[in-house]
Recover the amino acids of this structure.
């Protein structure tokens, strides 16, 4: 049958692994590139043919992304290659025409085998190297050593892994755009351990198990993995552990995030590399690779799960199960025919999800790992499953005709790639990934509440254990509408932490309140008021970042950060939000004017220097400056624009009812210049305020408008001479004060209510409660009476 097979059929012909531990006698401080190159050399040797000729025949290299380049905020403290795939290729004498740096995620190794196997079958590639590596142990050990330590200094010197490799690179980016939302970031839900802990407790809720029962089950699931790792020479922690040892908290096995202790989570502090050589049957024959080295890909699948918080069941990933099952279906086998299995094991649920879905049971004869699993063998960054593939190939060769399954998981049960391997010859078989993905994308999802207030029920939870204090995270459903919420505990709320840490929170009723910093959860509404005593809307005598001046019925608000061009950071935003709360609640304040101190800037928008500092960022619920997201703008706010109103500063002006600008004013949504977008209302308000084509141009280019052009476009009501914006705003305020404040409020309310009504007559006949209240007000009587008596009215604002 081998002679009859399509010569373009892909076949794995060589696999290799490399590793070193800091405690090894021969420890050499290998970089990630060095470790990958070591693994590639081993894979070339494993092919059983001339390694020099094989390396020269490579047309494609694909590298799995290291952790230190897997997120925008990651960094490489010891330096790194600027072209990892080509650096590795250079080490082994390969000069490929194509170099790929894959997206982040544990699915990457198996996905690359699937993708590049299809490319070989299609004739667009012939000889491919796939590899990945991590030197995390070395990096963490030496990162704090002096950078200027002499080369002949003590072994604790800091190595430099920086290198340049010329040549084209197909960098596919991080691939994490849909993995983390702003809502998750606001609630500290960005690390894998915390998110998986939420999934784990959601599964416990579905199974109706106690804490103790569930912990024991995790220990029983992972104990056999540790025994496999104990016999693996490449394992980072080759120690067999009992189920009780794994599930029982202790000094070395400290709690990390309920229900996890340290021994149950992936061990990422490793120095490991793994590689595979994939080529066409024609190339294997031409290069003289012995057929006893050939292993075929019998089945494969790559599928994506829905976003974490949108999933109907937070304790399962049916898309991952579907991927594993589909790989078996393509191979035409059932789980009972598998003799070797490796399920990605970063956390217990990643294993139990697939095992339950496929009906797999781990035994000593067929454990659910080939390496020892991520907590024990080592979580080699995104590259773990390359080690599993290497082991699967070796097992299949040792038992010709047997089948091995590798399941590779990425994200939070988010991306799953599966492969079925065997020495039995088979042509490349297409999968139905596209059709299955379309089906997954239509599965029902759960609506998410950005701001959660009132009573809710706990779906799942975790407690993050840290030296500086524990934090609880709760996901559940709001009682009033069933939307899903996420919330955290407030520091010092021992009552809620006790429920989460020692009680049974699953299904419990809790109380929520939303803030600019995010949603908070506690045991009751009474407890919430204790933690956050209600603050009546009132002006303080002074503020740190803002000045206020009350002049009769007018409130003047000045952003007082001239050294930062009146750019806003969270504390300034909070003060403005508090001030405008007070303004809208005070019946004696009828008009507000907002301006900037110093004469050069109204506001330069978001304080990017503060953002870049890494300090916590948030925006009040009412939006930037307490205005851009405020719904009830029931009294007029005038922007007195003196100088620059850029980015968020322009968005503030757009949110105000009226704008007075001096001759020096400059307006612009400049966010694209710094890699951001005008998300505080600019993308919405500007196209509604001026012709959409022009608005699009301004948004996409960041072009600035001067006061005259802004006035001609209707973005500015009045233009004054330089330095006179505030005086102009005061004059406009006096004109407004000549009218009834009750009428002004009603006018603003009715305009807001009818803004979204497209039909003119429908808008005109819209029944507004504001008009009913106005006709029953004292100001109506006063206005009519004063007109009849030919005297100025005395408005009472009621």
């Amino acid at each position: 049958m081998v002679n009859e097979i399509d010569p373009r059929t892909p076949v794995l012909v060589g696999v290799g692994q490399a590793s070193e531990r800091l405690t090894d006698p021969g420890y050499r401080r290998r970089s990630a590139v060095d470790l990958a190159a070591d693994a590639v050399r081993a894979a070339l040797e494993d092919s059983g043919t001339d390694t020099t000729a094989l390396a020269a025949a490579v047309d494609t290299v694909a590298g799995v992304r290291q952790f230190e380049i897997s997120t925008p905020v990651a960094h490489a403290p010891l330096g790194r290659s600027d072209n990892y795939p080509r650096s590795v290729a250079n080490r082994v004498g390969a000069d490929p025409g194509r170099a790929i740096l894959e997206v982040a995620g544990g699915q990457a190794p198996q996905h690359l085998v699937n993708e590049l196997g299809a490319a070989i079958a299609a004739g667009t590639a012939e000889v491919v190297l796939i590899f990945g590596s991590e030197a995390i142990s070395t990096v963490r050990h030496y990162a704090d050593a002096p950078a200027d330590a002499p080369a002949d200094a003590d072994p604790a010197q800091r190595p430099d892994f920086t290198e340049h490799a010329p040549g084209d690179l197909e960098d596919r980016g991080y691939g994490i755009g849909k993995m983390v939302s702003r809502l998750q970031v606001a609630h500290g839900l960005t690390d894998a351990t915390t998110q998986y802990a939420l999934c784990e407790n959601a599964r416990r809720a579905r199974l109706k198990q106690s804490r103790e029962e569930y912990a024991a089950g995790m220990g029983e699931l992972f104990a056999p993995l540790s025994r496999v790792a104990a016999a693996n020479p490449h394992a980072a922690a080759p120690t067999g552990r009992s189920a009780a040892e794994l599930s029982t908290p202790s000094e070395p096995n400290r709690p990390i995030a309920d229900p996890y202790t340290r021994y149950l989570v992936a061990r990422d502090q490793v120095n490991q590399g793994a590689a595979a050589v994939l080529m066409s049957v024609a190339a294997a024959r031409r290069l003289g690779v012995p057929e006893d080295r050939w292993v075929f890909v019998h089945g494969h699948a790559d599928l994506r799960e829905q976003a974490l918080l949108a999933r109907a069941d937070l304790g399962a990933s049916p898309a991952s199960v579907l991927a594993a099952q589909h790989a078996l279906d393509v191979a035409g086998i059932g789980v009972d025919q598998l003799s070797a299995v490796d399920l990605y094991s970063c956390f217990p649920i990643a294993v139990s999800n697939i095992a339950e879905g496929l009906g797999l049971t781990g035994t000593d004869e067929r454990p659910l790992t080939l390496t020892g699993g991520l907590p024990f063998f080592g979580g080699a960054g995104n590259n773990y499953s390359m080690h599993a593939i290497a082991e699967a190939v070796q097992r299949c060769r040792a038992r010709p005709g047997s089948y091995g399954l590798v399941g590779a998981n990425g994200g939070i049960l988010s991306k799953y790639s599966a492969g079925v391997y065997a020495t039995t010859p088979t042509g490349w078989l297409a999968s139905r990934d596209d059709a299955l993905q379309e089906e997954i994308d239509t599965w029902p999802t759960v609506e998410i509440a950005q701001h959660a207030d009132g009573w809710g029920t706990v779906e799942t939870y975790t407690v993050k254990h840290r030296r500086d204090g524990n934090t609880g995270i709760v996901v559940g459903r709001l009682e009033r509408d069933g939307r899903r919420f996420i919330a955290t505990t407030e520091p010092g709320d021992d009552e809620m932490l006790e429920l989460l840490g020692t009680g049974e929170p699953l299904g419990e009723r809790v109380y929520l309140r939303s803030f600019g910093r995010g949603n908070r959860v506690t045991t009751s509404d009474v407890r919430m008021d204790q933690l956050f005593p209600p603050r009546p809307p009132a002006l303080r005598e002074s503020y740190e970042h803002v000045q206020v001046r009350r002049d009769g019925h007018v409130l003047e608000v000045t952003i007082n950060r001239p050294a930062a061009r009146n750019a806003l950071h969270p504390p300034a935003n909070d003060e403005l939000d508090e001030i405008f709360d007070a303004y809208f609640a005070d019946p004696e304040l009828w008009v507000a004017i907002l301006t900037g101190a110093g004469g050069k800037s109204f506001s330069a928008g978001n304080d990017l220097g503060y953002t870049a500092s890494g300090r916590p960022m948030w925006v009040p619920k009412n939006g930037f400056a307490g205005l851009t997201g405020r719904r009830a703008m029931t009294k007029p706010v005038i922007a007195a624009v003196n100088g620059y109103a850029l980015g968020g500063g322009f968005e503030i002006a757009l949110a105000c009812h009226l704008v007075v600008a001096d001759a020096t004013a400059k307006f612009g949504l400049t966010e694209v210049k710094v890699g951001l977008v005008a998300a505080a209302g600019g993308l919405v308000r500007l196209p509604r305020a001026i012709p959409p084509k022009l608005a699009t141009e301004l948004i996409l280019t960041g072009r600035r408008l001067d006061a005259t052009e802004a006035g001609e476009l209707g973005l500015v009501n009045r233009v004054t001479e330089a330095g006179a914006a505030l005086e102009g705003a005061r004059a406009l305020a006096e004109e407004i004060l000549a009218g009834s404040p009750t009428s002004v409020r009603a006018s603003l309310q009715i305009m807001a209510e009818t803004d979204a009504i497209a039909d003119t007559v429908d808008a005109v006949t819209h029944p507004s409660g504001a008009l009913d209240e106005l006709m029953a007000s004292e100001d109506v009587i006063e206005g009519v009476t004063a007109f009849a008596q030919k005297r100025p009215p005395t408005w009472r604002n009621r």
DSSP finds 27 helices and 27 strands in the chain. The two ends are 93 Å apart (CA to CA). The CA atoms of residues 449 and 481 lie 10 Å apart. The mean pLDDT is 93.
